[in-house]
Design a protein that fits this description.
Order of helices and strands of chain B: HHHHHHHHHHHHH
Number of helices of chain C: 6
Distance between the termini of chain C: 62 Å
Number of domains of chain C: 2
Distance between the termini of chain B: 70 Å
Mean pLDDT of chain B: 85
Largest interface: A-C, 76 and 86 residues
Low-confidence stretches of chain C: none
Radius of gyration of chain B: 23 Å
Chains: A mainly alpha, B mainly alpha, C mainly alpha
Helix content of chain B: 55-70%
Shape of chain C: globular
Mean pLDDT of chain C: 89
Structural class of chain B: mainly alpha
Number of helices of chain B: 13
Number of strands of chain C: 0
Structural class of chain C: mainly alpha
Oligomer: heterotrimer
Low-confidence stretches of chain B: none
CATH topology of the largest domain in chain C: Four Helix Bundle (Hemerythrin (Met), subunit A)
Radius of gyration of chain C: 20 Å
Order of helices and strands of chain C: HHHHHH
Strand content of chain C: under 5%
CATH superfamily of the largest domain in chain C: NADH-ubiquinone/plastoquinone oxidoreductase chain 6, subunit NuoJ
């Protein structure tokens, strides 16, 4: 049996990789991909805890399904925004979309 | 005599007993997994070899001609001749194509066609893996095709391939919804998502209780595999093979295998969900008859699909999408609601089935009436009514 | 056996995730993301959560990856392929990521988790469905409203402006 901490370590590593992608990428879609990685890391944590701590109720799986649902909705709206911004400004470089700055 | 009664399971048992004499436990499992895996993965290839011949003969007869009849008696070796021709063709890769992606796309599509066979119930206790979520697995594997198609269209570095890929994805995503709704209706009725469980719950085949679900799944699955009349995506006269226009030789062969493998798999799923799978007369006493009934029912559905291909005209892309969203989705939703309501009523099972059948016929009647009126309006708009002609 | 599968799947997932954030071509990054999702689905199967694994493949690979690839294809053109991938602070971000991982690993390995291993209930899916319309019906309904709102919003935002 694989110990619980191994799953949590994998999830932590995935989360940090996703955080790097979300904070360091220039392309807006790249940032969104980093966010999706972070949400998936959270899902791994939820399911691992469901299996190892509370397998008699289905709360862990339910929570994970809600996370997937919200991630899907957020990806849809985020990508629609990116496409719309691309139409206006012909760029998806997050550093050049800064008219609200300062 | 007793051995033959449960022939396939007994063969598996004897084989396992024989190899356990010289292999450790984990070796026996590994060898069994590999053998079953190879058999199941060969199903698309087998389907391609036999169904291409069957299709050309059937469509030929519908079009009042004979079809291939030179290569072997009744042309049954035509498929092998085609395969040899495809294998010896030159493998052309476009100059600025994305090579790894270009090479990976046909493998993914053919792989998805092969993965479907892991959950097909061939007979009692003859299934690759009796997953708890069998039908959901089938839908998920179908959605892998979506990504693979975009990969193929993009990597070809060809505008028409890309447009073809976009249209394929629009069609695939649109028809997933009525497919899932019809499957959900069957799952509600059977009470389980396991493929074996659905077959065992069909005391009478579900097509007699839920004809709307059958029609919904049948048409949606035909559209999912790109089969006529939904084959705008690869219609030679419209878009020149669409997203796989730049593929040649064996890579094109993989797309071909995937198409016929998908056709066979979709027919097998229809037979399992609606026609009773491996059930039939004497199937309980003689389990070896199970696969025979399964194959017969599958070939029946395949024949139905080929018949439709030979007789119906092709849809335009906007007609296809309108049909999915405006006709199939409301009908499937109404069906699902009605079945859910009826299952909660405290009536004996046969009465519930009759109620469901009544509801289904009502939905069919309403859909046909509305479609008829829409068609008449459309014809009047284009002055095609008999009075004007 | 389970440990071997776990190590293989984790390595595949983490390597693919690394390629997602490092890849130069956005399309390749999207394909690595698809591989990551498959790896995570494999991890879910190891954890006996088959429904979530299949839902992950269906939703993430089938729908969200397709969306991301469409967005990449519709928003390229002006981006030249030699554009820099990272912004100027990428060194600091990488350091921050490493520190965060060390912190999380320390916390995770030192906490005594109340592990209570038991068998997965045989009717897990029925219980899941029952919970959806039983104790968790309000989040379920709110999630469906959220999806409808997101769908309508995305359509309106991404629509071609008829001007």
């Amino acid at each position: 049996m694989v110990p619980l901490t191994w799953y949590l370590l994998v999830a932590a590593a995935l989360f940090c990789i996703g955080a790097f992608g979300a904070l360091a990428r220039r392309n807006a879609v790249g940032v969104l991909m980093g966010i999706e990685l972070m949400l998936n890391a959270v899902n791994i944590n939820l399911i691992a805890f469901w299996r190892y701590v509370g397998v008699t109720q289905m709360t862990g799986q339910l929570f994970a399904i809600f996370v997937i649902t919200v991630a899907a909705a957020e990806a849809a709206v985020g990508l629609a925004l990116i496409i719309s911004i691309y139409r206006q400004r012909s760029t998806v470089n997050v550093e050049e979309i800064d008219t609200m700055k300062g | 005599m007793d051995y033959i009664r449960d022939f396939f399971v007994n063969i598996a048992r004897s084989w396992t007993a024989w190899i356990s004499t010289f292999l450790p436990d984990w070796g026996v499992s590994l060898v069994n997994y590999i053998v079953v895996g190879i058999i199941l993965v060969l199903m698309p290839v087998l389907a391609t070899l036999t169904l291409t011949w069957m299709e050309r003969k059937v469509i030929g007869r519908i079009q009042n001609r004979i079809g291939p009849n030179r290569v072997g008696p009744w042309g049954i070796f035509q498929a092998i001749a085609d395969a040899v021709k495809m294998l010896i063709k030159e493998d052309i890769i476009p100059d600025r194509a994305d090579r790894p992606v270009f090479n990976l796309a046909p493998i993914l599509i053919a792989g998805a066609a092969g993965l479907l066979w892991a959950v097909m119930p061939f007979g009692r206790r003859m299934i690759g893996a009796d997953l708890n979520v069998g039908v959901l697995y089938i839908v998920a594997v179908g959605s892998i095709t979506t990504v693979a198609v975009i990969m193929a269209g993009w990597a070809s570095n060809n505008k028409f391939a890309l447009i073809g890929a976009f249209r394929v994805v629009a069609q695939l995503l649109s028809y997933e919804v009525p497919m899932i709704l019809s499957i959900a209706t069957v799952v509600l009725l059977a009470g389980t998502m396991r493929m074996m469980g659905i077959v065992e719950a069909q005391v009478i085949p579900f097509i007699f209780i839920l004809p709307v679900a059958f029609i919904g799944y049948f048409l949606a699955a035909a559209a999912e595999v790109g089969r006529a009349p939904f084959d705008l995506l690869e219609a030679d006269s419209e878009i020149v093979a669409g997203y796989f226009v730049e593929y040649s030789g064996l890579k094109f062969g993989w797309f071909y295998i995937a198409e016929y493998g998908n056709l066979f798999a979709v027919s097998a799923i229809t037979a399992t969900l609606f026609l009773g799978g491996w059930r039939g007369p004497f199937a309980n006493a003689v389990p070896a008859l199970g696969p025979l009934y399964f194959i017969i029912k599958t070939i029946l559905v395949v024949f139905l699909l080929m018949w439709i291909r030979g007789t119906w005209p092709r849809f335009r892309i906007d007609q296809m999408l309108a049909f999915a969203w405006k006709v199939l989705v409301p009908a499937s939703l109404a069906n699902l609601l009605w079945v859910a309501v009826v299952l909660k009523l405290p009536l004996p099972a046969p009465v519930q089935w009759i109620l469901m059948l009544g509801g289904n016929l009502l939905i069919l009647f309403v859909a046909a009436t509305l479609l008829g009126r829409a068609a008449k309006r459309d014809a009047a708009k284009h002055s095609l009514t008999p009075a004007a002609v | 056996m389970q440990q071997v599968m776990f190590i293989v799947l984790s390595l595949v997932t983490l390597a693919a995730a690394l390629m997602v954030v490092i890849a130069r071509s956005m399309f390749r990054a999207a394909l690595w993301l698809v591989l990551t999702f498959f790896g995570i689905a494999g991890l879910f199967i190891l954890l006996h959560a088959e429904f979530i694994a299949v839902a992950q493949v269906l939703i993430y690979v089938g729908a969200i990856s397709t969306l991301i690839i469409f967005a990449i294809m519709l928003s390229r053109g002006v981006m030249d392929p030699d554009a820099r991938r990272f912004n100027d602070q990428w060194g600091v971000v990488a350091g921050f990521g490493a520190v965060l991982f060390v912190l999380l690993a320390a916390v995770v390995t030192r906490t005594r988790w109340p592990v209570a291993l038991a068998d997965v209930p045989a009717d897990a899916i029925q219980r899941l469905g029952g919970d959806f319309v039983g104790s968790y019906v309000i989040p379920f309904e709110v999630a469906s409203v959220l999806l409808v709102v997101a769908m309508i919003g995305a359509i309106i935002i991404a629509r071609e402006q008829e001007s």
